[in-house]
Amino acid sequence: MSESGPGRAESGRIAGEDEVVDLCSELIRIDTSNYGDHSGPGERAAAEYVAEKLADVGLAPEIFESHPGRASTVVRIEGEDRSRPGLLIHGHLDVVPANADDWSQNPFGGEVVDGCVWGRGAVDMKDMDAMTLAVIRDRVRSGRKPPRDVVLAFLADEEAGGTYGARHLVDNHPGLFEGVTEAIGEVGGFSFTVNENLRLYLVETAEKGMHWMRLTVDGTAGHGSMTNKDNAITELCEAVGRLGRHQFPVRLTKSVRGFLDELSDAFGVELDPEDMDETLARLGGIARMIGTTLRNTAAPTMLGAGYKVNVIPGQATAHVDGRFLPGYEEEFLADLDRVLGPRVKRETLHSDKALETDFDGSLVDAMRAALKAEDPISHTVPYMLSGGTDAKSFSDLGIRCFGFAPLQLPPELDFAGMFHGVDERVPVDGLTFGVRVLDHFLDNC
Ligand SMILES: [Zn+2]
């Protein structure tokens, strides 16, 4: 890994650093709120903006509209060695909605205030979209080809499961990803500062899977004043109460094991996975992302039954958000049925797979080296995301997916709280850092 790749200025500064902030602000100003249906503004305007920025430097992007207004932009950049398998860099263009009244800045203003770019999508994930655009524009302009083919995909609809974005492209235009074997996207590559000698960068190597479920208990309907030993509400509530309080067993997958080993080294303590509360507390806000990757979880989220105070209804229902670890889906479902008991009928409304890949190989080496070049106290570690991303769709094409959207964060910023949160913002220094890291990464990918 050289200190400055070909085409880099003596200072190490690259042109992409100069425009990444404007690109991020301009993307934030294009409202792409995704309400989970087609009632929002859609991603078409953002997809066109991205396509223009790519065409501007001589690339030939294509826009794919899956439904009126729902659009993704894809472009392939030829690498030095076209016989090598390709690399996908993907980012989504949609954002979750924001209620402007709750914010201290306009969520769609993209203003730079106190050294940060503010707005919905600043960390999830117009930051990475802007970094990718800035780096690629700079490299194309200066004639620096990546070592192999790189496909860029700027996608619709990630925040609602990707049906009109990644899923649509994978199912209907798989040829776009021909020969691609590896990918980087959200949520990883961000920093956690341990002390002045050590900064961890968390690369996502695994994602939990999900089961969204409806639970139903059928009982005997009747008058509220009379004896009834078969009350559906009573039965359901007892089962939901048991489930809500149930602690699923700790199961360490290789990503979580790898993360805990690194954490143990970083803090110089032996970790007991059964008793992680204290250790997780040291992680500050990101503990919220890490804590639930030790075990399966099932959170009751909705309840429904009855229509009149003196009528015992014949049925009661509840909804549960279930998340399982890679390799533990069967155990999860068996545990659920055991805890719920025979009276409860369980239906899955929506499910998606869990993912896990090894934290090794030349692509991981390239990430590690790129971070090291820009941050000498960096230490790159694997981790599991408790949620899901478009990686689930791309994995269907046999693509090995990583979360690597490099950002150096000030220790005091509650990064996890930024995701879908109020006052979402990204440090300007984090963006320029990310551009430099991605540039190194593309030299060696
Ligand atoms: Zn996201």
Automatic annotation (TrEMBL):
GO terms for molecular function: hydrolase activity; metal ion binding. InterPro entries: ArgE/DapE_CS, Bact_exopeptidase_dim_dom, Peptidase_M20, Peptidase_M20_dimer, Peptidase_M20A. Residues 205-333 form the Peptidase M20 dimerisation domain. Its cofactor is Zn(2+). Keywords: Hydrolase, Metal-binding, Zinc. The keyword Metal-binding applies. It comes from the Bacteria. NCBIfam families: PRK07906.1 (NF005913). PANTHER family: ACETYLORNITHINE DEACETYLASE, PEPTIDASE M20 DIMERISATION DOMAIN-CONTAINING PROTEIN. Belongs to the peptidase M20A family. This is Acetylornithine deacetylase/Succinyl-diaminopimelate desuccinylase. It comes from Actinacidiphila yanglinensis.
